[in-house]
Design goal:
It contains two helices and two strands; from the N terminus they run E-E-H-H. The protein has about 110 residues and is mainly alpha-helical.
């Protein structure tokens, strides 16, 4: 079974991002490079931390701003040209998700 990264939408992760009890899996997303249990531990001020969804949003925004570089060659199959088709697919999912959430909140 494969799992989906809540940061970038990559749907080939080997483990869940978070277990049912809320613990992070420490899985690393081969597409965006987010490591659950590490990159979601963002302290913004003394003792004040971002929520997981806020950490995901921040990481995603920075990843997109930096060109949405594919983190690992394992993220795409050899028949995909340097991950470009996957990158487009992931970005389409991300933008669709963000657009949907924006419309839903409006």
């Amino acid at each position: 079974m494969k799992y989906t990264c809540p940061v970038c939408g990559y749907d080939r992760m080997d483990d869940v991002a978070y277990y049912e009890n809320g613990d992070a899996s420490f899985e690393l997303c081969f597409c965006c490079g987010f490591q659950f249990g590490v990159d979601d531990d963002v302290e913004i001020e003394d003792g004040i931390f971002l929520s997981r969804s806020e950490a995901h949003d921040l990481y995603r925004a920075n990843w997109l701003k930096d060109g949405a570089k594919i983190f690992s060659d394992y993220a795409y199959t050899p028949d995909q040209d340097a991950g470009e088709p996957l990158k487009r697919m992931i970005l389409q999912k991300t933008f669709t998700k963000d657009s949907y959430q924006s419309r839903k909140l409006s």
